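Researcher: Let's run the pair from yesterday's discussion. Sequence first, then tokens, for each.
Model: Starting with the first of the pair.
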Amino acid sequence: MKAIVVSDQAAGTAGMTLAERQLPEAAGNDVLVEVRASGFTPGELDWDGTWTDRLGRDRTPSIPGHEVAGVVCALGYGTRGLSVGQRVFGLADWTRDGTLAEYVAMEARNLAPLPGDLDFTVGASLPISGLTAWQGLFVHGRLQVGQSVLVHGAAGGVGSMVTQLAREAGAYVIGTGRAADRETALDIGAHEFVDLQDDSLADVGEVDLVFDIFGGEIQKRSVCLMRPGGTLVTIAGPPEARPVNGLAIDFVVEADRAQLSEIAQRVREGRLRTIIGKVASLDDAVAAFNPTERVKGKTIIRVRP
């Protein structure tokens, strides 16, 4: 099969190449998915799991990409809950070969049925951003109706999902980002927007929950705005600051079939939308991940028509 592979961590996305790889086999409790569309997060190339297996052994050349939408074409021994021919989407394991390929073998529990009225490109854009937003707000943040939420990067992949889900849950949403992101953030549901370059973050006032993607100085400044007992949720690594009498939580997103289904249902009903900036073929994936200008929205690789 054709796949995108990486073998040099220092090279970043410039080190990606299109190669022929052996077709993977579905182990016990696995399914083999014929990939129709795949998502990729550039940060993957900094993750240990891209380069080593669970025992810390080098596994390069490896196939990146962890978001997938496709069709189940084989079941491993003992696999239950899915069937051959079923449309699915989900989140592949961090320490196994990923989804920038014509086929991927992955645990069945990491996949959810993809409704027939959702395009594969949409399905592949949802797992990381959608699950990260869902788990950060509702599992770790325990968001309640009427609370105020400060969402950093509100127009980005994760931030746009956080903004929409928080607004729908009855929160007052304050988004942040670049000046060029203001219109998008407000359009998808933010009540207010703060330009982190030109506006004063201190003018936001007190908030109940901060969803942080940056860490560092912005995280520290954000914590100073939090009400006593508030919650900081971050995906930028171990928290560097903590709210007074509150919680500071960092987490790594996990696959969850029920949550994926909730997210897909909201997309079907028009209550949630994903921002796709570019769709490219597998043959053009390397160029797509090394653009000459900034792409607004997620880049999705359409592996098959």
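Model: Moving on to the second of the pair.
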Amino acid sequence: MAAVASALAAAGCTATNADSLPALKADVSKQTVSGLSSGGYMAGQFQIANSSRVFGAGIVAAGPFGCAMSAGAKAIPFFPAALALNTAQAQNGCMADYLSSLGVLDAKRLLAQATTLADAGSIDPLSNLKTSKIYLYSGANDSTVALAVVKAARDFYLAAGVPEANIDFVSGGPGGHAFSTATAGNACETTEPPFVNNCKYDQAEAILRFLYGSLEPKGTAAEADFTVFDQRRYASPDATMADDGVVYVPPACREGGCRVHVVFHGCKQTRALVGDAVTKGSGFADWAATNRLIVLFPQVEASSANPRACWDWWGYTGLDFLTKNAPQMKAVSAMVDALGK
């Protein structure tokens, strides 16, 4: 607990000052999302499940929708056996690529799975993806998630009807398993906390520019415009969300009408573990400062089933983790809806 308190203090906020999210009349019909690693998987899941109002995703070092849902878990959908099967597939087939020959990364299989969910109404119609924009990134020094896995995400989106012109696939740069910045963070090729690397590449700009088009010049996010809020108001206990999240609201968005971008952190990249390295160091808030954009930074909490504080992309909160009714999906949607009030 002392370590957590220290990390929060370093981020310039405490757990005791959290309140509800501000009602900002945000335009929740034009959401975008992004994330690294488990956050990249979550960004893809959230965008596909809610594609009627989430039109774009920036996916860094992560693979295709539904990759970790194993055939065994579908055949025997009971905890904890199904979770164990999904965990094995996630680790062996959705990070490395040596199970790809068994169909783990097969776009047609994954699309069929998504189609079944859409037909059941568990996710939004896949036809919405025809107008979506998707940014994908794989660093050349990423030994955690293989290039083939990120390519499989591209193949899935193409199979689902996303036009090739609407996909920006970036690979070959020297990055490790981390989010890239232009000037701050660890050495580019490293893979270590806080998983924010100085690669002379402004990945926040690249994502936002591809998803939204032209941008106003980068600004500077003021400390006073970051707000800590109480996530417990929006999440059920089974979502295993942290007590607090962060939202950045530039002054221009206090009167309403701004768009919302959600940033999903990676494993071991929460505020409790890395302070403000993501919320303030990723660069998203600086670009949002001058582009009428609200940035939401939801946070998950480590648990016995999730000791690395990852987002749920393999089913530790339940086997409906890919759907709009999954605990974490519902929690983040509720947060965005609160900003739209």
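Researcher: Give me one sentence on the second I can quote.
Model: The CA atoms of residues 130 and 161 lie 5 Å apart.
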